[in-house]
Every structure is written in C-alpha cells, then in structure tokens.
Amino acid sequence: QVQLVESGGGLVQTGGSLRLSCAASGRTSSMYALGWFRQAPGKEREFVGTISWSGRRKDYADSVKGRFTISRDNAKNTMYLQMNSLNPDDTAVYYCASKPTQTDYELVYEFDNWGQGTQVTVSS
User: In which region does residue 75 sit, left (phi positive, over 0), alpha (psi from -120 to 50) or beta (all else)?
Assistant: First the structure.
C-alpha cells in the first residue's frame, strides 16, 4: 500500500500557472502507475491524466492537453502536475491516485489508491 499526499494547491489568477506535487510513501517497492483527477463542486470526479512507471508514457484528458504536463521522479517518489494557462473551469480539488503495474510502460485509467486532494482555485 502506497500513501499519497498532494500539495501545491492554492489560489491563482486566470492565465496563471501552478505546480502540484504528489508524494508517495510507504510500500513503494513495486512499480505503479499514477494519475491525476479533479472534482469541482457539484460535479463528478474527472480524469486529468496518467503516467506510466517509467514516466515515458503519458495520457491526458482533452480538456487539459497542451496546458498540463505530468511528470514523475521515482527517486523522490513524487509525481508532478504542471498546470499552465489556468482558467476558472480548472477550479477543483485535485487528487492523485496509484495502481500497481507489472510493467514500466503500461498506462492505467482505473485506480485503487487515492490521496486526500488539494484545492486549486482559479479566479477570474
């Protein structure tokens, strides 16, 4: 079991940037894919992006392609979400998630382990 803790959320103006971090601790000996999700008030949780264990493969939701970048540093057990050109529609609680994988290249869209979330608010 990997424990995930998000950080880096806050208030940013439209057009601004923010970088979120997801720190993993506990049992990190196994390979695992990571993902970012978000949930705005009154809305369902939305897929943002995912990254393979190696970090070489990534996938993003259409709503964030070209604006958001996922990366990871396995030596630091940390995943990042660089968010640029933010707009109020990006306002949400952002969650990171993990799922074990048997390869370093596979992407995952269904996760079984979640962090507590960090609030991102984009003002007009």
Answer: alpha
Exposure of 34 in the CB half-sphere (CA atoms within 13 A): 30
Name the β-bridge partners of 7.
Answer: 21
Q: Which residues pair with 39 in a beta bridge?
A: 93
Collect all residues with Cβ–Cβ distance below 8 Å to 94 and sequence separation of at least 6: 6, 9, 20, 36, 37, 38, 48, 81, 117, 118, 119, 120
**Residue 119 · residue 62 · CB < 8 Å:** no
Question: Could you report the per-residue pLDDT of 67-123, keeping only the tens digit for each?
Answer: 999 999 999 999 999 999 999 999 999 999 999 999 999 999 999 999 999 999 999
Bridging pattern class, strands 113-114 and 92-100? antiparallel
Q: For residues 36 and 56, what is the distance between their CA atoms, to the nearest angstrom?
A: 16
